[in-house]
Amino acid sequence: MKWKLEKILNLMKLNDIDVLIAAQPSNVTYITGISRSSGVVLIVESGGLVTALTPALDYWRITDTTKLGELAVVPYSTYQLPDIDLKLVEPPHLYIPKMLKEVGKVKIAVDNPFGRIAFEIEKNLGVRIQDLSEVIADLRTIKHLEELEIMKKALSITERAVERALSELKPGVTEKSIAAVVEYYMKLFGADGLAFESIVAFGSNAAYPHATVTDRTLRRDDVVVIDVGAQIENYSSDLTRTVLVGSVEEEVRKVVEVVSEAVDVAVDSVRDGVEACEVDSRAREVLKRAGLSKYFIHSLGHGIGVEVHEKPRLAQGSKDVLKEGMVVTIEPGVYIPGKYGVRIENMVLVRESGAEVLNKLGKLLAV
Fold first, then answer.
1. Of 78, 126, 204, 304, whose Cβ has the fewest other Cβ atoms within 10 Å?
2. Nearest-CA neighbor of 341 among 192, 240, 229, 220?
3. Domain residue spans in the chain?
4. 41 vs 2: CA distance, rounded Å
């Protein structure tokens, strides 16, 4: 994905940066395509050379699987490995300041100004480093066509897996078993892994926005919230559906309809140039008219990409502005403690003139 490196190099040029030190795993993965990149630190030089300081145990995996031609992989170890047939360097916080000192006076930026590497650079070189963490986060919000296709595939796999799980929703099954079914089919259909820990919540457990999967069994006339996501080629999907089992109370059905309407109204307000907080407000207005706004206790949505939660943040007080090419979630919810919860979530691509809903699975589900 050479185009990603070109975006980073252009960013460095605009900010007059000679060397960028990228240590945040999501940024390392974004730039290089390296999966499970914890511990990998990139040294990106303005001329285009990228050096990946890599834990010794990951050296062969990364050299065998990474496709970025400009990448030089240098293994390091924090402990002695006397018999290993590799030339090892010191850990990044020791190696990088010495390397930069040899290079001479350069303008340095980092994506983690509070990390040990930044501390050691400033201490040993006596220079002030520039923080590009927010600038890189902004850069990642605009999705390339290649990224969009991967994310659409991840979402399609997620939806197909949820559809398979619906047939298993019968009284007596547990939250754990349904979560296992969804996760099994996501991987069977081609997911590399899970985008996040799955949520499957029955009845009163659905009143917890971040419910944990338990041994609770499904009862007749329960409400079921399923919030799951597949990951493919380091990109995530995020899907939530509320499923009505049997003859649930009319009150619950009405809440589901209101939440579904809030999704539609919010999506209709999405377009290039709109403030993210405005989209959140539009959804809240729907819930307020129904007397339910006090039960909507989280933000409306978030950006998604390499990470499940990225910029922008669709919330009250957010200063973010939607731009064409962003992918965001729209996920209003209503949570009645001790009774039930309802949440519906779609993934949406921001276009200049409106929003493109990426989901194919219907919002209203019942078994």
1. 126
2. 240
3. 2-141, 145-366
4. 18
Contact 225, 207 (CB under 8 A): no
- Tokens at residue 174, please? 């547990």
Cis peptide before 337 (omega within 30 of 0): no
CATH number 2.40.50.140 is the correct assignment for the domain at 2-141: no
Please give the structure tokens belonging to residue 48. Answer: 């285009």
Place of tokens 């993965």: 29
Q: What is the pTM of this model?
A: 0.95
Residue 56's CB is within 10 A of a number of other CB atoms, namely 16
Tracing tokens 């031609």 back to the chain, one arrives at 69
Q: What is the pLDDT of residues 88-101, one digit of tens each?
A: 999 999 999 999 99
* Distance, CA of 320 to CA of 250 (rounded, Å): 38
pLDDT digits (tens, 9 = 90+) for 107-151: 999 999 999 999 999 999 988 899 999 999 999 999 999 999 999
Residue 322 three-state SS: coil
